[in-house]
Amino acid sequence: MTPDAGHPAPSDLKRKGMIEHVSPHHWNALGPLFAERHTYAANTVISRRGATLDHSLLLLDGVVARSIPRANMQHSTFVALQFKGDFVDLHAFPLKQLDHDVVAVTAATVAVIQHAALKQLLDGDIELSRMLWSLTLVDASIHRHWAMRNSSMRGFARVANFFSEIDARLAAALGQQQDTYTIGITQTDIADATGLTPVHVNRVLRDLREDGCCAIASGQLTIMDRARLHRRGDFDPAYLYLPNSDAEL
After folding, report:
1. Order of all β-strands in the sheet with 101-104
2. Beta strand 101-104 with 64-69: parallel, antiparallel or unpaired?
């Protein structure tokens, strides 16, 4: 399925989520370069691994996954989730192609910035170059945390930590904590993201619900006791480098 026809980015395009790390001064220069936006339906592949890319995308709404097809090409594994205010593929600027697919988990709207325009801006602005580089380093920090979580935490704590991360990142993206978030992921997706089997995830979700931490149904995550969920998942958000936190860039 193809996206809708590109149309100019709105003049009121705002800094939301991780893009808030970019100063208002730099946003005044960067924002106008997002010359168009596209909307993708859920489960649409936005870009495929190995494809040559001459642009990068800023997620304006929805949830997007980085997904790596397995060897048999019958299944893919989520290796990262992106939320409103995240660049989903800024590392394509120097690399020109990705080693993973970018997939819309829910309906997703992205703003497009051409690499040629971005290069022209960054060639004359070292500080903005450093900031955008830092955003890609945050992606690497999150990848390291996922590797640690999936290799060393038990199933219950692993999923609790995963949901704690989603809670923190969506709160930053939306500007406030909410009791319920629409995340659009299935139990199979959760299993892929946490390195567990779907059967194990089903048991863990029941245990989290019965423990009073959180519940997930029909793609919606409901936080029942945030402090308890974070304790159960041994969650420390420092690795996320969220805007307006002690770990700011």
Report:
1. 45-47, 101-104, 64-69, 76-82
2. antiparallel
Residue 221, pLDDT score:
96
Cβ distance 47 to 102 under 8 Å? yes
Question: Per residue in 170-217, pLDDT tens?
Answer: 999 998 999 999 998 889 889 989 999 999 999 999 999 999 999 999
Cβ neighbours for 40, distance < 8 A, ≥ 6 positions apart: 1, 3, 46, 62, 104, 107, 108, 109, 110
Record the pTM. 0.90
Please name each of the domains of the chain with its CATH number. Answer: 17-143 (2.60.120.10), 154-240 (1.10.10.10)
Q: Looking up tokens 């949901």, which residue turns up?
A: 163
Cβ(112)–Cβ(57) below 8 Å: yes
DSSP strand pairing (34-40 vs 108-114):
antiparallel
206: Cβ contacts below 8 Å, ≥ 6 apart: none
Which amino acid does the sequence have at 1?
Answer: M
**pLDDT average, residue stretch 13-28:** 89
pLDDT at 10 over 60: no
- The Cβ of residue 80 has, within 10 Å, a number of other Cβ atoms equal to 18
The sign of the torsion formed by the CA atoms of 29, 25, 141, 82 equals negative
Look at residue 112 and tell me whether its pLDDT is greater than 70.
yes
CA dist 194 → 86, 197, 220 (Å): 21, 9, 18
